[in-house]
Design a protein that fits this description.
The complex is a heterodimer of chains A (about 180) and B (about 400). Chain A is an alpha+beta fold. Helix content of chain A is about 45%, strand content about 15%. Chain A is elongated and about 80 Å long. In chain A, strands 2-3-1-4 form a 4-stranded antiparallel β-sheet. Chain B is mainly alpha-helical. Chain B has one domain (about 10-400). Chain B has 17 helices and no strands. In chain B, helix 1 runs antiparallel to helix 16, helix 2 packs parallel to helix 16 (about 360-385) and helix 10 packs antiparallel against helix 15. The chains are: A alpha+beta (about 180), B mainly alpha (about 400). The interface of A and B includes residues 51, 95, 103 and 106 of A.
Chain lengths: ~180, ~400
C-alpha cells in the first residue's frame, strides 16, 4: 500500500463488489473477510461506522510520522531562514538588539512548523489514499452510486492472493450481501 | 459497532477502597508529613521567618493551583456535557474539595504580608509614586477582603459541586446533573476572574512595580497542566493499586494524556507570549520582573523550564503508545508535576533571592506541611466515598468510551 505501487489490479477483473443493507451486516461481513485472510480489499460507507477499522483489521496509519517529519522540516526551515537573513543576507539592527536575536525568530518558526505539518497531513493523506484519482472501476457499478446515500459495500480486489472470481462472490453472498457483482477492470 | 452499554451496575467493591487496602494508610501518612513539616517550619522558620514565608507561599500556591485546576476540569466536563471523563471526575472533585482547607493554609501569608510584599511594608508608598498610584488596589485591607472573597467563592463552588455529585451517588437523580451543568458556565467565568486576580495579588504583586496583562492566564495554564499531570498519576497509581482497575481503561488514560500533551504546548505558548512582548518592547516597567529571573543562577532554571516544562515533555508525550501505557504516562506526569513546582518557585523566589538560586530546607519543610495536609484531606475523603460518580447519567457511556 505504498505511494508508488501500481494503483489498480491488472487483468480482466477489478474485483468483486458486495452490497450490504445495514452497517451491522457490513461490520460482521468485514470481520469474516478479515478472518478469511484477505489483504487487498476495502469497505465503503456513506458515513463513518465506529470500530470498522478493527473489524477490517487495519493497522495504524503512517500519516503521523509524515506530519511529524513535515512539522520538524517547517521548524528548521523557519529558523534557518531567519538566521541566514538576519545575520548574513540582510543584516539590519532592529531596536538595538543583536543580529541573532532568536526569541524574535520563534513566532515565524512556530508558524512554519504548523503550516508544514498541516501540509504534511493534507497532502500525506491524499498521497496515502492515492488521490486525486479521476476514475475508478468501482464506478462502473450502478448500485455503487448509493454508497453516498444508504448502501454499504465491500470490494475485494482481484490482485488479492486469496481472490478467485467465483469463490469470492460465493463467500460474500454467504455473508448476507444483498447483491454481489464481478467488476471488469 | 462498539459495545454500547446503556445500563451498568458498578459493584461497590469496584469503586471503593476496600478495608485493609494499602491506600487506607494515606491519611495517616499525610498527617505524619504535615506534622513533620510544621515542626520543621516552626524550628527552622524561627531563625529565618522571611525564608519560611516565601517557601510557604510557593508550596501553598502549588497545591492551591492543583485544586483550582481540578475545579476547572470538572466545570468544563459539566459545561461541555462530556461523557468520557465521568469516571475520572470524582478524583478531581475530591481534590478541589480541599479548597476550604487551602483557606486555612493561607493564614501564614496573611500574617506575613508585611514581610512578603514590598507594597505592604509600612510607609512603602510614601516615597514611591508608582506604589502610591497603585495603592487604591494594593493596600492591606482591600487585599484581605479580596482573599476572603476568593476563598469564599472557590469554597462555595467547590462544595456545591462536590455535594451535588456525592448526593447523586445516593439518589441517582439525573436532574442533579442538569442543575450542575446550568451553573457550570457562570462558575467558569467566576473562577477565571478570581484565579486571575488571585495570581496578580499573590504572585505578581511580589514585584509591585511590574506590569503584565498575561500573568493570570499564565498561572491558569500552569495550574491546569499541573492538575492534569496529577490526574494522570493518580489514575495510573489507582489502577496499579487495584482500585478502579475495572473502571478506568487505557482509553481514559489516552485522553488524559492528550490533555497533558496539549497543555504543555498551551503553557509554553502563554509563557513565551508574555516573555516575548516584554523582551521585544524592552520597557523598564515590564523587564523588571524578568531581569533577575534570567540572570545568574536563575538563568539555568529559566532554561530548565523552557526545555523541561515544554520541549522535552512535548516530544515525549507526542506518541500514542506513551499515553496509553500507564508507566510511561506516569513518568511524564511526575516530571511535569515537578516542573510545575519549579515554575512557581522561579516566579516567587527571585524576589527573596535576586542574587541567585538558593535552596533552603524550609522549601522542603513547607512542601511537607502543605502537601501533607492536602494528601491527608484528599485521602480521608477518598476512603469515605465512591471513587467514581456511581449513578451519573453518563457513567455507562464513560465506561464504554473508546478513542476513534
Amino acid at each position: 500500500m505504498g505511494l508508488f505501487t501500481p494503483q489498480l489490479p491488472k487483468g480482466p477483473y477489478f474485483g468483486v463488489l458486495a452490497e450490504f443493507a445495514t452497517p451491522a451486516d457490513l461490520y460482521h461481513a468485514c470481520e469474516r473477510v478479515r478472518d478469511a485472510g484477505f489483504t487487498r480489499w476495502d469497505a465503503h460507507t456513506p458515513f463513518p461506522v465506529h470500530g470498522l477499522e478493527k473489524a477490517m483489521g487495519l493497522g495504524r496509519s503512517p500519516l503521523p510520522w509524515i506530519v511529524l517529519g513535515a512539522g520538524l522540516t517547517g521548524l528548521a526551515t523557519g529558523f534557518v531562514l531567519q538566521w541566514w537573513v538576519h545575520t548574513s543576507a540582510y543584516p539590519l539592527v532592529i531596536s538595538g538588539k543583536p543580529l541573532f536575536s532568536w526569541p524574535a525568530f520563534i513566532p515565524v518558526t512556530f508558524e512554519l512548523g504548523v503550516l508544514f505539518a498541516a501540509f504534511g497531513a493534507v497532502f500525506g493523506m491524499l498521497g496515502l489514499n492515492r488521490l486525486p484519482m479521476h476514475h475508478h472501476p468501482l464506478f462502473r457499478s450502478k448500485v455503487f452510486d448509493r454508497v453516498t446515500d444508504d448502501a454499504f459495500f465491500i470490494s475485494v480486489e482481484s490482485w488479492d492472493p486469496k481472490f478467485d472470481p467465483s469463490a469470492t462472490q460465493k463467500l460474500l453472498a454467504s455473508l448476507g450481501a444483498r447483491s454481489v457483482e464481478l467488476l471488469e477492470s | 459497532m462498539s459495545a454500547h452499554r446503556d445500563h451498568v451496575e458498578l459493584r461497590p467493591e469496584q469503586v471503593a477502597i476496600p478495608p485493609g487496602h494499602s491506600w487506607n494508610r494515606f491519611p495517616a501518612i499525610g498527617a505524619g508529613c504535615a506534622v513533620l513539616g510544621v515542626v520543621l517550619c516552626a524550628i527552622l522558620g524561627m531563625g529565618n521567618p522571611k525564608q519560611f514565608l516565601f517557601s510557604w507561599l510557593v508550596s501553598f500556591l502549588y497545591f492551591l493551583s492543583l485544586a483550582l485546576g481540578a475545579l476547572f476540569f470538572v466545570l468544563i466536563q459539566y459545561a461541555a456535557q462530556g461523557a468520557w471523563g465521568v469516571v475520572l471526575r470524582r478524583i478531581g472533585e475530591t481534590i478541589f474539595a480541599t479548597l476550604p482547607v487551602m483557606a486555612v493554609l493561607f493564614l501564614p501569608v496573611v500574617f506575613g504580608l508585611g514581610v512578603l510584599y514590598e507594597w505592604a511594608h509600612p510607609g512603602a508608598a510614601e516615597h514611591d509614586a508608582l506604589l502610591r498610584w497603585k495603592s487604591p488596589y494594593l493596600n492591606v485591607p482591600f487585599f484581605l477582603i479580596r482573599a476572603a472573597l476568593f476563598f469564599g467563592l472557590w469554597s462555595a463552588i467547590a462544595l456545591f459541586y462536590y455535594r451535588g455529585s456525592r448526593g447523586q451517588d445516593a439518589t441517582g437523580d439525573a436532574s442533579v446533573s442538569a442543575r450542575l451543568r446550568k451553573f457550570a458556565g457562570p462558575s467558569i467565568i467566576v473562577l477565571a476572574l478570581t484565579t486571575t486576580l488571585a495570581s496578580v495579588d499573590w504572585i505578581m504583586s511580589l514585584t509591585p512595580h511590574w506590569y503584565s496583562t498575561m500573568f493570570g492566564v499564565y498561572f491558569f495554564a500552569g495550574s491546569f497542566l499541573g492538575f492534569i499531570a496529577l490526574l494522570s498519576l493518580l489514575a495510573v497509581r489507582m489502577r496499579a493499586a487495584g482500585l478502579l482497575d475495572t473502571v478506568i481503561s487505557t482509553e481514559h488514560l489516552h485522553d488524559v494524556g492528550k490533555l497533558l500533551f496539549g497543555f504543555t504546548a498551551f503553557w509554553a505558548y502563554i509563557g513565551f507570549s508574555q516573555f516575548f512582548l516584554v523582551w521585544y518592547a524592552n520597557l523598564p516597567e515590564e523587564t523588571i520582573w524578568y531581569k533577575p529571573r534570567i540572570e545568574g543562577s536563575w538563568l539555568p532554571i529559566a532554561l530548565l523550564l523552557m526545555v523541561g516544562h515544554f520541549i522535552a515533555p512535548f516530544f515525549y508525550l507526542m506518541g500514542r503508545s506513551v499515553k496509553r501505557n500507564g508507566s510511561t504516562l506516569s513518568v511524564g506526569a511526575v516530571w511535569l508535576l515537578l516542573m510545575h513546582y519549579v515554575d512557581l518557585y522561579w516566579q516567587v523566589m527571585p524576589t527573596l533571592h535576586p542574587e541567585g538560586f538558593s535552596p533552603s530546607v524550609l522549601d522542603l519543610a513547607a512542601f511537607l506541611a502543605v502537601g501533607g495536609c492536602v494528601i491527608a484531606a484528599v485521602s480521608w475523603l477518598l476512603r469515605r466515598q465512591a471513587l467514581v460518580p456511581l449513578r451519573d447519567p453518563r457513567i455507562a457511556e464513560s465506561l464504554a468510551f473508546e478513542n476513534a
